[in-house]
Each structure stands twice: as structure tokens, then as C-alpha cells.
Amino acid sequence: MFMRNSLLILALLISPVLYAEETPELGKPASKALVEQWNNDIFPDGEGLPSGKGTATYGKKVYQQYCLSCHGVKGTGDSADELAGAKHGLTDNPPDKTIGTYWPYATTLFDFTRRSMPLNNPGSLNNSQLYAVTAYLLYLNDIIGEKEIMDAQTLAKVKMPNRDGFVNYQSK
Ligand code: HEC
User: Are 141 and 106 in contact (CB under 8 A)?
Assistant: First the structure.
């Protein structure tokens, strides 16, 4: 009996070694297109912004077609986050977090939207649609005018209301 138990324990101890080569075979290799979609960071200063341009006027159409179903009319929120139309401030309890009250950079708003939105089909909008919808979101938050053209130069120059609300530890 003692011998049998010892053998069992020994078998259990060495089994992970024997099966270490096996994998659960989950997932699949990332395609080149998928890697390209993810590996294209845009930095706060605008480095990495692509060519293309758009205004809020066209962005409204893009928004209505691809964003409204989740983010609601004029970005006031629905099943997904409120993006505009804050009723009170960031320092209130609870804070009212929108693009206008919270986001520090317009450039990273473009980056976020390009890599993750629309949630049900990320990567599907072209660069001009992305500039336009970003312009519309900035316009809804009273940050730019309806006809202001957003491109790689102008987007990087937009100063977000909460720009100084974040601490950059590297520059301390
Ligand atoms: C199918 C639903 C859906 C659609 C369509 C959609 N979104 Fe979203 N969106 C979400 C959800 C859910 C989140 C929250 C994701 C998270 O917190 O990780 C989100 C988050 C965001 C945020 C970040 C909000 C914040 O401040 O944290 C932005 C900006 C945004 N979406 C923009 C857009 C734009 C622009 C479009 C259209 C091009 C779009 N979304 C379409 C569901 C959607």
C-alpha cells in the first residue's frame, strides 16, 4: 500500500515535467494587418498622426452612422460612455468625465478612436473619417468651431481644457 501511494505521488510530481511541452493551443498568430492596426501609436505631441483631414460638419455624419447607437445623441451617452455635454465638473463627486472635462490631448483621442472604435468594428474608419469624427467630438465639447479643419498639424495644436490636470512624472 505504502509503495503504491509513493508511486502515485511520484507520478503526480513528474507529470508536469512530462507534459510541459504541450500547450492548450488557444489563439492564433496575429496577422500582419492586425499588427499594423495596433502598432501605430500617436503621441501627445502629434507624432504618428497620419495624413487626411476633416471637420465637425462631416464628422457629425460619421458619428451618426458609426457611434450614435452606443454613445447617444450628441455624445450624451447611452449604453456606452458619455463623450460630451458634462453637466458639472471633474472635481465634483461623482466627477462628470467627458472628453471636454477629462481628456488631456486631442491627439490621443484620435489614437484611441482609431484603435478601438467603433467597438463592434475597430479599424474600419479611414483617416479622414477619424479626423472628422474627432473634430465633431471636440466641437460638441465647445473646444473647436464647427468648420475648423482638423489634420496632423491643427489637431496637435488643440489645447484640451484638462491638459494641466494630469501630472507628468517624467518631467518632475
Ligand atoms: C457597439 C457600441 C459602440 C460603438 C458603436 C462605439 N463605441 Fe465608443 N465606446 C463603447 C464602449 C463600451 C466604451 C467604453 C470602453 C472602455 O471603457 O474600455 C467606449 C468608449 C469610447 C471612448 C472613450 C470614452 C472615455 O472617455 O473613456 C471614446 C472617445 C469613444 N468610445 C468614441 C467612439 C467613437 C468616435 C465611435 C464611432 C466611430 C464609437 N465610440 C462607437 C462602445 C461603442
Answer: no
